[in-house]
Amino acid sequence: MLDGLKLKQAGIPAASIVTTPFMGTAQAMAKSWGVKNYQFLVTPHPIANLTQEQLNTQANELATQVIGFFQSAAKILD
């Protein structure tokens, strides 16, 4: 999350991903770093006990979201 915030402040698009219980923490962290409207992606929690197949499915869904995130960022920069 911090890497994503620092990249954002440097003008470099970055996609940060947090699990659902950490959404509030992510929002507070972004606010404390001066990026109160920072957009981050959210994935269900927990992930540690997922099977390889479940983890792959979740990763594929996140990859689609990350691509969409960067496509949106590119349109804003155009």
Could you please describe the fold and organization of this structure?
By secondary structure, this protein is mostly helical. The protein is built from three helices and two strands; from the N terminus they run αβαβα. The protein has helices spanning 2-9, 23-32, 52-77; strands at residues 17-19, 41-43. The protein has a two-stranded parallel ribbon with strand order 1-2. The longest helix is centred in the last third of the chain and has 26 residues, at 52-77. The chain is flat and about 35 Å long. The two termini are 25 Å apart.
Describe the structure concisely.
With 78 residues, this protein is mainly alpha-helical. The chain has three helices and two strands.
- What would the average pLDDT be, to the nearest integer? 92
Task: Give the class from helix and strand content and strand pairing.
Answer: mainly alpha
Reported for the largest beta sheet, the result is:
2 strands, parallel
Q: Whole-number radius of gyration?
A: 14 Å
Could you give the order of strands across the largest sheet? 1-2
- Number-wise, the strands total 2
Helix content: 55-70%
**Euclidean distance between termini CA atoms:** 25 Å
